[in-house]
Amino acid sequence: MPSPNIWHHPQTYEIENRAADPDRHIEAAMRSVADWRGRDLLDLGCGTGYHLPRWAEDARRVVGVEPHPDLARVAARRTSRLDAVEVLVGTAQAVPLPDASVDVVQARWAYFFGPGCEPGLRELDRVLRRGGTAFVVDNDARRSAFGGWFRRGYPDVRPDDVERFWSRHGWQREAVDIVWRFESRADLEAVVRIELPTKVAEEVLTEWGPDAGLEVDYAVNLWWKRS
After folding, report:
1. What is the pLDDT of residues 171-191, one digit of tens each?
2. How far apart are CA 77 and CA 71, in angstroms?
3. CA separation (Å) from 196 to 151, 202, 205, 217, 226?
4. What's the average model confidence in pLDDT over 129-154?
5. Who's near 170: CB < 8 A, 6+ residues apart?
6. Pseudo-torsion of CA 166, 164, 47, 85, nearest 10°?
7. pTM over cut 0.85
8. Three-state DSSP class for 227?
9. CA separation (Å) from 135 to 98, 191, 193, 203?
10. 20 with 178: CB under 8 angstroms?
11. Of 57, 63, 20, whose CA–CA distance to 41 is shortest?
């Protein structure tokens, strides 16, 4: 299933990556649960590899897995000079790695989990070593400015159902508050338009006028589970 944002708008998604969580609160929350320093890390759904160099600063080995071949090629070019990084084409339900081969997995807005994604969760269990940790970063649509926008754009995604799904599968939740911090109004508008259906995006941009500024509060759930 194509991702509606990065697959079709990779350049705009690059702007979003730069704007999202510039203070690295997600990373700090992850490290408080499980540090990847000197360990093997899998970035599942790595896209154009934006985060791979960051992981490689501390990890022993980093593998990026991406289902879209064009994006995987960009990720491979981006990390071509980093010996510790490898990029593979693959999916969450068929990760191209051996059993028990990584210590930490992160899937950051890679796809929306829920009923039907159980094959992907089983793959996480398969590739993690004993004592390893899997992280999934997803929207918390119950709070924040962006959460409200998300609820309007995707009313079929029910936050309480999402939380029950994760809890039923034994995952724990850390609530993390981040921001989108843009360099220009044009950048903000471009990102909103790839993240929300057209009608909702235009309504949001009308309401969030130029005087509202370039920073949008954004709530996420960091779901995690140890193997």
Report:
1. 999 999 999 999 999 999 999
2. 10
3. 10, 9, 11, 16, 33
4. 96
5. 225
6. -10
7. yes
8. coil
9. 19, 24, 27, 33
10. yes
11. 63
Query: Which of 164, 145, 158 has the alpha carbon at shortest distance from 215?
Result: 145
The pair of structure tokens assigned to 9 is 């708008």
Which residues lie closer than 8 Å to 184 by C-beta, 6 or more apart?
A: 214
Distance CA 68, CA 72 (A): 6
Rg value, the chain, Cα: 17
CA angle 110/137/179 to nearest 5° reads 110
At 75 the three-state DSSP class reads helix
**Six-digit token pair at 144?**
């924040």
Please write the tens of the pLDDT for every residue from 16-25: 999 999 999 9
Per-residue pLDDT at 5: 80
* Cβ atoms of 144 and 21 closer than 8 Å: no
What would the 3-class secondary structure string for 121-172 be?
HHHHHHHEEEEEEEEEEEECCCCCHHHHHHHHHCCCCCHHHHHHHHHHCCCE
Residue 25 carries which DSSP code? H
Q: Is 185 in contact with 15 (CB distance < 8 Å)?
A: no
Contact 26, 222 (CB under 8 A): yes
Residue 65 CA neighbour count, 13 Å, CB half? 21
Place of tokens 């950048």: 187
C-alpha–C-alpha distance, residues 206 and 204, integer Å: 5
